[in-house]
Write a structure and sequence with these properties.
Elements (H helix, E strand, L loop, with lengths): L7 H7 L12 E5 L11 E5 L3 H13 L4 E3 L10 E3 L3 H14 L8 E5 L3 E6 L23 H10 L8 H11 L6 E5 L1 E7 L1 H34 L5 H8 L3 H13 L3 E4 L6 E4 L1
Parallel strand pairs: 1-5
Antiparallel strand pairs: 1-2, 3-4, 5-6, 6-8, 7-8, 9-10
Helix pairs in contact: 2-3, 3-5, 6-8, 7-8
Length: 275
């Protein structure tokens, strides 16, 4: 209370319908089939309620739409469930978005689930002097809405030591996921990479390794041709290997930079020397 008036925080925490007073205090959750924001959208919900209800609904939206592995009951009558994304990390991220958002903004908290990632965005900026890099290490707690943070701490939804973002990174790392990314570009965002994102990243690395092996084989073939015919032209090498002249020029440049071949004389009338 402030005098005889109810504070905005009290409305957001305890009112039956806070959205009557704060229209954009709702949380928008949507799921996409692929990795881009495009239709059709298989699931889209706008959740209303107090801050505790918003968190519960948003967390349920995410956890019910990602993969989960259920263990056996050999150790307990209750089976353990391991979600694709750590439950505690997702909960902490959504709690932070609801608790620390700018409630004067016309935007809402957005939770977007893609095939390869989960994005959680909230209107507002990091506290003055904070950077996204600081969130990856120990830092002090400086809540944007302290009147919200204190009751949420007492309820058990949030901690007030500034270690929540570190916990998010730690849990994802322990589960073998890519490190989540913090972003500040107008609004504040946090991206979790799903196992599909890990697979795509590994596939990309695998593709690059395959390309490099192919290039190495090509350069070895070029060296063998040059050893047999030192005066051969790049066009003739391209014809022999069924490659473009541009591709041969690029590979020859790589061989020269590594000191494996040397051009003796002019382009016309000269020859290659394998060193």
């Amino acid at each position: 209370m402030e005098g005889e008036k109810i504070t905005n925080a009290a409305l957001l925490l305890f009112a039956k319908k806070p959205q009557k007073f704060f229209i954009t205090s709702s949380v928008k959750c949507c799921q996409f089939y692929g990795n881009d924001i495009e239709r059709p959208i298989p699931s889209y919900h706008i959740y209303d309620g107090d801050v505790f209800e918003l968190i519960d609904q948003a967390v349920s939206f995410v956890m019910s739409r990602i993969d989960a592995e259920i263990s056996g009951r050999d150790k307990s009558v209750l089976a353990d469930v391991t979600h694709e994304l750590p439950l505690l990390a997702v909960t902490e991220a959504i709690v932070n978005a609801v608790c620390h958002r700018d409630y004067t903004s016309n935007a809402s908290v957005q939770v977007m689930l893609f095939k390869n990632r989960l994005e959680i965005w909230n209107p507002g900026q990091l506290p003055y002097g904070f950077t996204t890099e600081m969130l990856k290490t120990s830092h002090r707690s400086k809540p944007a809405n302290p009147l919200l943070a204190r009751p949420m701490y007492l309820y058990g939804s949030i901690e007030q030591m500034g270690t929540g973002t570190e916990m998010i990174l730690k849990l994802c790392k322990e589960q073998g996921l890519l490190i989540p990314e913090f972003q500040q570009c107008g609004d504040f965002g946090l991206t979790f990479w799903r196992k599909f994102g890990v697979e795509e990243n590994n596939a990309e690395k695998g593709t690059e390794k395959t390309r490099e092996k192919t290039r190495e084989k090509t350069r070895e073939k070029i060296l063998n041709i040059i050893r047999e015919q030192p005066s051969i032209t790049t066009q003739e090498i391209a014809d022999a290997l069924s490659l473009t002249v541009k591709g041969i020029d690029w590979n020859i440049k790589q061989l020269k930079s590594k000191g494996l071949i040397e051009r003796i004389g002019p382009d016309k009338g000269g020859y290659w020397k394998v060193t």
